[in-house]
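Recall from the previous chapter that SMILES is a line notation for molecules. Here it describes NAP.
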Amino acid sequence: MNGKIAFIGAGNMAGAFAGGLVSSGMAPSLVSLSAPHMEKLDALRARLGVSVTTSNADNVRDADTVVLAVKPQVMEKCLTELMSEIGSMEGKLVISVAAGITVERLSELLGGHRRIVRFMPNTPALIGRGMTGMFAAPGLGDDDLRTAEKIASAAGKWVWVKTEDEINTVTALSGSSPAYFFMIMEAMVEYGVSRGMDGKSARDIVEGGAIGSILLAEKSPEKTLAELREAVTSKGGTTFAALEAFRKGNLPGTVKDGLKACEDRAAEMAKLF
Ligand SMILES: NC(=O)c1ccc[n+]([C@@H]2O[C@H](COP(=O)([O-])OP(=O)(O)OC[C@H]3O[C@@H](n4cnc5c(N)ncnc54)[C@H](OP(=O)(O)O)[C@@H]3O)[C@@H](O)[C@H]2O)c1
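With both inputs in hand, we obtain:
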């Protein structure tokens, strides 16, 4: 990937992707960020050596790729102002990480621009362990696809989806998923504390179990998740007792209901912006 990357926004997501690019070897002089206030910009400049400005127009003018990393609610105002200053995004690949703003809507806000990719990342991107679902506008060239992959790789793993609706499914499966895992972990820690354990020990134990299980799954691609579960479940044993209680409370059904609510909300949000 050649050329300059300009991030609009200096929050969690811009910091995660910009930080990942610099730590994976991209020259800091090729990365720039803009936001209304200097506070976060100054911190990113100090940490990464990238250039920063409070002017979105100055930021994107000579960029080859522009990453839109602002909240969905401010996207319209932000792009309207930007386009009135620079006129066109011609020659630039535009990547949006904003939830709920479709390629069609982005194209409209960008005066009919078509070189657009949508990202649906998640917060583990902050530590380089993100999962990003990506959707490319129809007809995007190979160079643009490779550039998007390089930027997504800077924050972890990625996967292309074939239809834009699938971005909403990715939101349910990974975009929002850290919160689901944290909720389950919270309940486990609360149980440990209710049995007399101190909070720190309970959290250390729960985290250890979670990290180990996830790494075991990652390192065992030849096994299904059901096989991994069965490998720790002897009939009549302790794990079996726990899983029977989970099934009785319809945990799998509850999880699927939650994912459906998430996906439905993502689809509704696409109509709002
Ligand atoms: N966090 C997640 O888990 C997650 C997951 C998937 C997708 N996303 C998407 O990622 C996007 C960014 O989220 P985030 O968590 O990084 O948000 P964030 O930490 O709140 O950062 C938002 C940034 O936007 C800047 N900003 C506000 N108005 C602006 C403008 N007019 N021009 C330029 N910059 C402006 C803010 O600047 P100041 O600092 O100066 O106020 C701030 O740096 C959102 O659209 C969200 O939907 C987030």
